[in-house]
Specification:
Number of domains of chain B: 1
Helix content of chain A: 40-55%
Largest interface: A-B, 28 and 25 residues
Strand content of chain A: 15-25%
Shape of chain B: globular
Distance between the termini of chain B: 14 Å
CATH class of the largest domain in chain A: Mainly Alpha
Oligomer: heterodimer
CATH architecture of chain B: 3-Layer(aba) Sandwich
CATH architecture of the largest domain in chain A: Up-down Bundle
Strand order of the largest sheet of chain A: 1-4-5-8
CATH topology of the largest domain in chain A: Butyryl-CoA Dehydrogenase, subunit A, domain 3
Number of helices of chain B: 3
Order of helices and strands of chain A: HHHHEHEEEEEEEHEEHHHHH
Shape of chain A: globular
Distance between the termini of chain A: 38 Å
CATH superfamily of the largest domain in chain A: Butyryl-CoA Dehydrogenase, subunit A, domain 3
Structural class of chain A: alpha+beta
CATH class of chain B: Alpha Beta
Amino acid sequence: MNLNLTPEQDLIIGMVRKFVREEIIPLEMNLDPDADELPAADKARLVEKTKEMGLYGLDIPPAYGGPDIDLVTRTLIAVEMSQHRAGLYAPCYGTFGGAGLAQLFEATDDQKERYLYPTLRGEKRGFFGLSEPSGGSDPARAIQTKAVQDGDDWVINGGKLWISGADRADFGLVFARTDSDQGRNGVTCFIVDTDTPGFHVRRIVHTLRSANYATELQFEDMRVPASNILGKLNRGFAIANDRLTRQRIPYAAGCIGVAIKAQEMALEYVPQRETFGAPLSSRQAIQWMLVDNDIDIKQSLWLTLEAASKAEQGEVFRKEAAMAKLVATEAGGRVVDRCMQMFGGLGVAKDLPFERWFREMRIRRIGEGPSEVQRHVIARELLGASLR
Amino acid sequence: MAIRLTKPWIPLEEGIAGLRGHLGVFQLADAQQQIVYIGFAGGNSLFGLRGEVTAMSKEIADSAFVRVEITTAYLSRYRELMMIHIADHGILPSANKLNKQPLTLGKMSPAG
């Protein structure tokens, strides 16, 4: 087993690192500390750069025009892309593009024409509408939004909570209960245009983070044609579950990147800062914080790369993805917290990025399935489907 | 938390005198108490709300009243107030059209 980067990975990582340090961080100095977008002209310029680098649309499958980069390398890139102030929720401010909603690659040809291709061309934006006030980690039971068939249409009533990007989206994937007696086999995924009568973005849900905020949605007699069902009727759970599992890998990678950057800043700072006549780096209390950080970062990285490697090879990676998400989000929080402590007052000021990372990293232990759910997933894998 | 900012309007001079350096959002209104500007005091604002409201009230000649909301979620709240204004009036407040680097706004249909 060789844990070293391949020469190709080394080259790509070096390129992304240079991009973050020379293009993103200098621009970020002039933005609000909570900013999640670049001025339009800067973003357009940097998108051209990532295209020139051959790294635009990283997660788009090669068959649809994306660069042919394996998931382990993409995970390493995600770790690099998050190493700046906005990196956790707006890595490189979106200049590397995105895959849109990966579920659309399984759509019908007609749906691809209407939603996937415009998304890949940057003409349309989508959102993922799963979570409800009743929960999000257990979609089989939590989904109360209902869809009732009426002729060739389905009429949807209900609401969603914690939905990112819905206010700026042209369409979204909305999960609704289509058979109330069937649990996980009674949920269907609908593609919903946001200009459909009855679709409402009611409010922003203000949280610890200002960037990439969440919204609350309400559906009132929202009529959606049957041709907008994604996948099969009553089989939406598999779409939701697959997404939840896959998303855990880049989610972990972002936390690792921020932790690496925080540790790098601390390592630069502690030899310079003196207290009681000696640099902080000479204090054992500080040294142990740095050591614990390094261990936290390494274990998060290896678990996340293992999950990516299994996924890349087509193996079942549910347990590994849950472990990566669990460990990286918790470790990332500890690393940022220790770094703030080492920086003292500066650590909590908006002059430095730690306070933003601290707030946003706290959300990571809850978003995309809280730590307790990840432990539940792991336990189920260890003990079998029934834990009772 | 109420979605709309519904605090009473305060005459500008009195309002500014009561402000400190907090983070938050604010609205300026003309003599008829119609909103002419929505702004925020963020992490880069000198003297927070006091500094931003003072600066913008000098720039916007017809501003006569102010109301503020102190919040650390100033960016998401600012965007929300802007989207609500568009939902209610169909356009941005008159002085916001002059924003040099406007933030991207989405679309909301708030209840009530």
